[in-house]
Amino acid sequence: MANHPKCLRKEVSVDGCDTEALVRVSEQFAELELEMIHQTELTAAKIAAEKIDWETVGNAMGRIYQTLCDGDNNGTMEALHAIEALLNKRGILVPQPVITEPSGQEGASDGK
Fold it and tell me: How far is it, in rounded angstroms, from Cα 23 to Cα 19?
């Protein structure tokens, strides 16, 4: 093989005139593509479930906006928990908030 740029890994590089190697690489990519297709194969039930989940997220987002406008903190938290439940279902954990204490200066000004 000819000189290769440093960023190109030699084990995956193929000379343009090496037709056998080009065919082997093409076959490998074709197999990989078929494998990916089979892994992401969706049934009608999975598609319907995904649609329901995304509609749930959309409705929850709409509720969040409305409850923020209305000053309804409990409603906002309920809608956020609905989204969090869907994320957890997919193995995505939502970091919980850290409750911050007021600084000592604010407390000192309250005592005046």
Answer: 6
How many beta carbons lie within 10 A of that of residue 21, not counting itself? Answer: 14
DSSP structural state of residue 92? P
Q: What are phi and psi of 6, to 5 degrees?
A: -60, -30
Helix ranges (H only) for 1-112 are 19-39, 44-70, 73-89, 104-110
SS (H, E, C) 21-52: HHHHHHHHHHHHHHHHHHHCCCCHHHHHHHHH
- Contact between 15 and 1 under an 8 Å Cβ cutoff? The reply is yes
Per-residue pLDDT tens digits for 31-66: 766 666 665 667 888 888 888 998 999 999 999 999
Q: Cβ of 41: how many Cβ atoms within 10 Å?
A: 8
